Amino acid sequence: MKYPQFLNKNSKIGVVALSAGVGDYIEDYKKSLLNIESRGFEIIETASVRNSGEVSNTAEIRAKELDRLITDNDVELIMCATGGDFLIETLPYLNLENINNNPKWLMGASDPTSILYLVTTALDIATIYGFNACSFDQKYLHDCQKNAFEIMKGNIITQNSFELYELERPENAESYNVEKEVYWETLNGDVDITGRIIGGCVDCLKDLPGTRFDYTKEFIEKYKEDGIIWYFDIFSLTSEAFYLALIQLKESGWFKYVKGVIAGRVRFPGGFTKMTYQEALKRIFKDIPIIFNADIGHVAPKMTIINGSIAHITSSSGKGKIDFRME
Fold first, then answer.
1. What is the DSSP letter of 26?
2. 105-108 and 127-129 beta bridge pairing
3. At 214, is the secondary structure helix, strand, or coil?
4. Looking at the domain that runs over 12-137, which CATH code has it been given?
5. Does residue 254 carry a pLDDT above 90?
6. So what's the pLDDT on residue 79?
7. Residue among 122, 11, 17 at smallest CA distance from 77
8. What 3-state DSSP class applies to 141?
9. pLDDT beyond 90 at 39
């Protein structure tokens, strides 16, 4: 696994809108940039970042804007501006050769899953999941946001489960509105696992099997001796749709060397049968160690995940922690 150079003070961070632009919430984006810059980083934006709409520009232009940052020797980390729905459109236009020849951190959350997953599985370059460039817009940053900055700088800290999580955030809130107790559910008993971690937003992962951008089998074969830990961020899939997505991934050979599973809180839960998300996980992974309602994904606070790294995850009595090793 190739690990790009971590950031130093005064490092330059590129921001690219591979999915939606930030024009519809530009003031929040500006607040986020202030928090990033206050830590000594310089921002280099591509032209489409501040556009509005479901996508920031055509798929080809979005990919070309990424390529400019990839080949800019001054840029050390590239953040996706925000999420969206259609980043997958850009994959045919990516210059994977340039990305491979200029390994640098790619970071994002939600829809950016598509490119992070591709880069890690196809090119063996580690990527960072958890936050977009617009994710730091609060006046008072939560510890999970501060942790993300530490990891970007190469301080690979232990991330412990948090005490409280957020249900709803009032408009213009100055901090996360955490109010409900965090409880990591261990569906097959206490968890203590170590393996190569990969995953992302399931709403995006489910669209990759059958495309030419699915390198999962090659990736898991390469790292089968480590065992694979899958992490899942569930945005708006019903429990039934989540189960069907897992069936698709399983039948595509993704889970051949699964060693453990950790899934986050669901941002928009729903269902039309009695099936729960927990039951969906148990049906697919049976007696494999499973954690549900972890601090991963769209519901804050959330942990920063290093795709492709070795993860050591433990959980018992509703709490847990994650450590990463750069191997």
1. H
2. parallel
3. coil
4. 3.40.50.10740
5. yes
6. 98
7. 11
8. coil
9. yes
Cβ neighbours of residue 147 under 8 Å, at least 6 residues apart? 157, 159, 303, 304
pTM of full prediction above 0.85: yes
pLDDT per residue as tens digits for the range 107-161: 999 999 999 999 999 999 999 999 999 999 999 999 999 999 999 999 999 999 9
Residues 6+ apart with CB under 8 A from 241: none
Domain extent listing, the chain: 12-137, 179-325
What is the C-alpha separation between 219 and 124, in angstroms, rounded? 8
CA distance to 19, 81, 215, per residue, from 66 (Å): 11, 11, 21
Of 276, 109, 265, 110, nearest to 182 by C-alpha is 265
The answer regarding whether domain 179-325 maps to CATH 3.50.30.60 reads yes
Residues in CB range of 152: below 8 A, 6 or more apart: 6, 7, 77, 105, 107, 128
Radius of gyration of the chain (CA): 18
Sheet holding 305-307, edge to edge: 42-45, 12-16, 75-80, 105-108, 127-129, 305-307
Cβ atoms within 10 Å of 52's Cβ, excluding its own: 12
pLDDT at position 149 is: 97
Report the run of H or E that residue 167 belongs to, with start and end.
Answer: none
Q: How many helices (H) and strands (E) does the chain have?
A: 9, 16
CA distance 66 to 78: 8
Strand 310-316 relative to strand 191-201, pairing: antiparallel
Question: Can you read off the two tokens belonging to residue 49?
Answer: 């970042």
Cα(62)–Cα(47) distance, rounded to whole angstroms? 9
